[in-house]
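Suppose a colleague, Dr. K., hands you the sequence of a protein chain of 77 amino acids and asks what its three-dimensional shape might be. Before reaching for any lab equipment, you can write down a predicted structure in token form. Begin with the sequence itself:
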Amino acid sequence: MARMASKDEKVRLNLEVPKRVRERLERVQEMSEADSLTEVIRRALTLYDALLTTAREDKGKLLVRYEDGSERELMLV
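The predicted structure, expressed as tokens, is then:
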């Protein structure tokens, strides 16, 4: 999925992560069809920010509903 060009000033950020974290990022990149690992991290940050805002500022709850109808609340840290 192509992303739109941004006019935001860009800064370089180098991350040192364990091999297993890199492998997880690559797995998510493949599953999400992201163009790059940078895109995976950018999307993850956007999602995490939205979830935290909903949970903390808007007093919302994050629920997962399974096919059998059961639900589980996810706690954000």
